[in-house]
Write the structure tokens for this entry.
Amino acid sequence: MKLTEPLERVLRVFLSDPAASRYGYELMKAAKLASGTLYPMLARLQDEGLVTSAWETPEEAGQRPRRYYQLTGEGVRVARLELAQRSQGRGAAAPGRTRPSPGGAA
């Protein structure tokens, strides 16, 4: 998996509570991504077996159903590994992609 900045943001949202199911619009807002970026990414993650999805049944007539996404066990493992590798290699990241910590070490 190529860990891009948008994918990193989505994985961080998922890992903030790995057991939680999240619907698309919620992920878009939390990761600050457009639908045209998010949904193809979710489809790839699902094809790779890292994410599952399921449609909800609306409780009220006329309500639009939501599709919920959740990391699989393997998805959690891969996401944690990729993010750990990214944080270890931060010094070698592309220019403009990293920000120093405010105030340095505490």
Residues 73-88 form the longest helix (16 residues). The domain at 5-85 is CATH 1.10.10.10 (Arc Repressor Mutant, subunit A). The two ends are 34 Å apart (CA to CA).
